[in-house]
Fold this sequence. Notes:
Elements (H helix, E strand, L loop, with lengths): L1 E5 L6 H13 L3 E5 L10 H7 L9 E4 L2 E3 L2 H11 L10 H16 L2 H6 L9 H10 L1 H21 L10 H16 L5 H11 L2 H13 L17
Parallel strand pairs: 1-2
Antiparallel strand pairs: 1-3, 3-4
Helix pairs in contact: 1-8, 1-10, 4-8, 8-9
Amino acid sequence: MFKLYLGNKNYSSWSMRPWVLMRQAGIPFEEVLVRFDSFEADSQFKRTVSAVTPTAKVPVLVDGDLVVWDTLAMTEYLAERLPGLKLWPTDASARARARSVCAEMHSGFGNLRTACPMNIEASLAQVGALAWRDKPGVRADVARLENMWAALLAEHGGPMLFGAFSAADAFFAPVCMRFRTYALPVSETVSNYVERVAALPAVQDWMRDAIAENDFRDFEEPYRLGNART
C-alpha cells in the first residue's frame, strides 16, 4: 500500500494536493501526519521527514522502496502506476493543457501564496481585503486564475476544469481554500467553481480534518495571536 507523509492539514497546501487526488480517485493509502512543530533543523518535524526524504519536506509518497517527494512527480507516478484511473484528461490536447496549468500552479502565484497562506480553520476577510488593496501582485495572481479557470470551464463545460475531476482540480484545491478563507473578490463563475471543489468528498474530508486539528502554529499565522477555537 502507498504511504503518504503530510503536514498539518490546516496549513499544508502542498500536502493537500496529492491527498485530495488520491482520496477522490479512490486510491488506498496509509496517511502519516507529521505535525509542524517548527522548521528548524533540529525540530521533530525535520528529523522525522529527513529520515524519509533528503528534502526534509512534505508531502512524500512512499511505494515500497521507492520514495517520491514532489507533487507533480507523485501525480505522474500514480498516473503511470494506475492508468485505469485517468488522473489526467483522456484527450491528448487537454492532458497537455492540464499538465501546463498544474506546472504553473506548482511554480507560480507566489504573491498569493505569500500574502494569503492556506488556513482552512480561519476566516480572514480583513487580511484578504488589505492584501487586495495593498498588493498588486495578489490582484495579478487572482486575475490570472480568473482567466485560466473561466476559459477552461467554458471550453470543457465543467463542473471541473477539464469536465470530470482530474489532477488539475486537486492542484488548485488549496487556492480554492484561500479564496474562501480570505474572501478575495472573484467572479460568479470562479466562485461557483470554488464551491464545487469545496463540495468534493475528498475536499470535505480534508477540511473536516483540518478544523479538527485545532493546532494553532504561530509561525504559520503571523497575522493573529491565536485561533478562534482556543
